[in-house]
Protein 1
Amino acid sequence: MLLAVNRANAGNADVPDSKGLSDVMAALERRSGGRLGVAMLDTGSGRRFDWRGDEMFPMCSTFKFLLAAAILKRVDEGRESLTRRIPVSPGDLIPYAPFAETRVNGTPPTVAELCEATMTLSDNVAANLLLPAVGDPAGLTAFVRSLGDERTRLDRNEPTLNSSIPGDPRDTTTPNAMVHSMNRLMVGDALRPSSREQLIDWMVGNKTGDKRLRAGLPRDWRVGDKTGTGNGSINDIGIAWPGARPPILIASYITQTPEGFKQGDAIHADVARAATGAFTG
């Protein structure tokens, strides 16, 4: 715990009441029964905070945000088209494919439809069908390296990437690395403006995160997020606009929770409440 407190305080002197925020994170981590990792960035002021921000956490389905961004980057470069169609066959089906299962042997979905299903429904088959377009897991890892993210890596596809084995570096990120990539992709110029706005629209349209970060943010804020869950890991990454101000970015990861743990959603909501207080209070 001492390491985490020191890491959270280091380099965060510009965040009001950094010690108080660290105390909140420590309490939330105790509630989780596992490890909590958080990174927050106010993109307007540059103020930031992290808790276990450089520690490794399983991504689970939060990787799908990076996958959709990698597709859009290829569109920007003229190497992909959002109107290209990719067929869905019975052999592609794996658990949780609410969109893809409706297209088996039917009208092939477009790349855009698969991206939307991946981002807003967390459709596992849609994600697997898109991965070859970016060079499979190794290609997605190369994409995040091009953003300056040296920690995030994807090694497998759905569903095996959700194994969440303690100490296993496969399919992991760090909260700070994810916020770095989110900043490059949704605030910076890593994508063309039209692709950046499309990525944001997919985040805002997500239907799986209402009880996580979104639940702890003011109702009048525009909010987007991407969840991830698997084998004791409960995650959410989000972007939130406090009125007309530039957005706040949050990456919140929980892992190694006890069997039957049910409080993950509420902890993410409390992380978001803490971010609201830290950056707008």
Protein 2
Amino acid sequence: MNQLISLGQWKPALVEMLQEYPDLEDIISAIHRVGGYAFLVGGAVRDLLLGIETKDLDIEVHGLTVEQLAQLLEQFGRVNYVGKSYGVLRLEHLDIDWSIPRKDRSGRKPEVEIDPNMSIEEAFRRRDVTINAMGIDLHTLKLVDPFDGMKDLKHGILRPTDKKLFMEDPLRLFRVMQFISRFEFTPTDELDVICKAMDLHEVSRERIEQEFIKMLLRSEHPSLGIRWLHAIGRLQEVLPELYDTLGIVQNPEWHPEGDVFEHTMQALDAAAQLEYDSAEDRLTVMLAVLCHDLGKVSTTQYIDGKWRSIGHAEAGVVLARSLLKRFVSKKKLIKTIEKLVQFHMEPVLFTATKAGPGAYKRLASKLAPHTHLAQLVKVSLADKRGRRGADKKMMTKLFGLEAEFEANAKKYGVFYHPEPPALCGEDIVDIVQPGPQMGELLERTYQWQIEHGVRDKERLKKYVAEQLKSKRYVKE
């Protein structure tokens, strides 16, 4: 859990942060001169008080209309008006949202009513939870906290700022979910009751997606938010494919942690502790881990005195697609995760069976162009680390297998990308006409290249010629 920092710490931190933005202090002074009041609001204040670095600055301006604010900002650079209908403006050289107080109405495309004369208390009342309902007057650097958000921040409490207004936007259930994961705070009983009753049908996939992304990218224990969904009785509605893993028994020899749901939650938290090349890399692996064992629901059987889930990786592909379509908008990302789910057992199987270079090269080829063995290793590693039993100790039976798999994949040159084809169409155009047959021959030759470790063009062209003489390609 993040710790609250003292007044003596956050004020200097605020000043230092403001100085990083060119023209910001001059803009704040200009707003004050014309009778406006600029407040740093929302998550930026919360994160500042928790000592968390933030780049998402929201400044709410009271006492000026959108037009007046736009005219003032134009003195400092080019203004982006894309969010004007929502009362939000941006200067193109400053990564800051400048907004006028507004009232939001729920729906797939929330309606807004802009009110520059709204009181500070009324404006802050419209924020979801009290820890987000604080502001800092950027002229005086005084904290404005009409709903005791600082107190709740200190005690790690998530409390609705206003019960009635909270219910107006059902997206807030998903915001609570990611706050629980990110800050490891405890929702009040009142907040739980509200979230149990909210109608989620009008929330768009795109808005839900943003909350899941924040949860998966910014949490050390993302399982907390998902466990909360289950605790308030909403998991079956939000993620039914994951809900179905509850109670699916696993072999305790390999899964001392319990059922598939518990394993998935532990694996998800384990994935959050891994190192990643980018936010995209992390999101991909986290989503794959969330989905990796969904196939056990339909494949788990009691065979010869043991619980087994033969074929669960392949069976999980369709279920992963179904789950992800609920909150992931990018088809390419979904396809990538399908591949990782389908082959997530391979690192262990390859090392256990001492697979040769051809197997590694074929696997890299199957994953491309969507993903690669480096991501697959991370999914496998999280899978192995998500197996803590009642003693909370990590099961170590399978440790070291991923390291061996990675070393082999690097040795064979296919850890980050597949082996490229040694032949292209130009190399065989003198013996094969361009078209479907050429494409089929090139693919067949590529697989032969991988299988036999051959990269010499002349040998590969000879293979093509031999294939052309076979019954497969000779016309009757």
Protein 3
Amino acid sequence: MASTTDELAPPVHQWIREHAHPLATTDPTTALDDLEPLRTMVGDAEIVGLAEATRAGHEVASLGHRVFRFLATEMGFRTLAIQDDAAVVHQLDHYVSTGQGDPHQLVAALWRPRRTREMLDLVHWTRSFNQRFPADPMRMVGLDPASARPSDYDDVAALVTRTAPRVGTRLRQRYDVIVTAHELAEHVQQARGVHPGRPFAELAREAHEMVDSLPHSDTKSRALEQAQRIVDFHAGGFAADFDYAALRHQSVATMNRLRRETGTRIVYWEGIALTANAARFEPLAVLEEPFRTVGSQLRTELGTGYFPVLLGFGHGTLGDVHQGQRVPAPERGSFDAALAAAGLGRYLLDLRTAPAGPVGDWLHSRRGLRVISGVYDAAADPDHYTIGALGEWFDAVVHVDTITPTTLL
């Protein structure tokens, strides 16, 4: 943690109380008048980053949904970009564009923290928006490459078993272990002490070798293709050789291509470690080396055309993806503590209006900012703060004091 001194607290708390715009509700179905100050803040920005401090808080998700609706209905934003499987999100995009498909099943195929009632509500609203404005629709884009899905494991095992039953049995023994990563990521299994032992990438490669050992046939070719996707899924995960720089470059390239080709304005809705304008983000778990964020590259390339917003909170209860843990009040001296101490419940704050002096010093000091990623232990809450400068990482804050759990589908 950074320094816990609170000598700057009184002027900071006063500034927040005097400049924050109270938000009437977290309910995205209500009027959006209280978000009107966001219009001036965002201005002509081409990409707005919505940076969730957690993906397991209902009020964080709902406030993000309200901001998304405002940007869509009032400011002409027409693309929602998320770090998820491009093939799955393409199917969601087809649904919100045409109404074809089962939105519940499609949301259930996303990355597990997004398989929530809150995400489904967002998808339903986006579909209704497109029905009202068919000539100017909202699109959805997945920024991650298409990857293995649970059905691939069954497909490969079935194809192999028909050709070589004994090989199919050995292959399924490995797949039955590693397919669990689609419900509980391998690095989370490791953190919770439930990992079975051998790296999943090793088991996936062994299964691929089994397929490759079979006589050549059209069946083998199909099975090899799917088996390779399974290898890539596990070898590129947080528990193996995750490449953040590759993700950053690909994500920025995709969003820039969309801007150039269509002129669309984009809502980039992701976690803090992706959206913050952080040239050097100190990881909390899993990744060992500091890295540059997607948001930092967007700021470098777009300047004020990229507008990052922190969706933060004070305390509360997380959804089942984090086993319903209760998050305590923020650590003294952290940015979270000052944002919560304003005592306003819910508010919107433009960080760029901070005056020189104590408030400006506070915004640009290096302090703790809580990040609840895939791995979280409430008993070790102080370990879940990264260190950075709030005023450099974000242009605005949407804050809610208390959260309740999201609802998994």
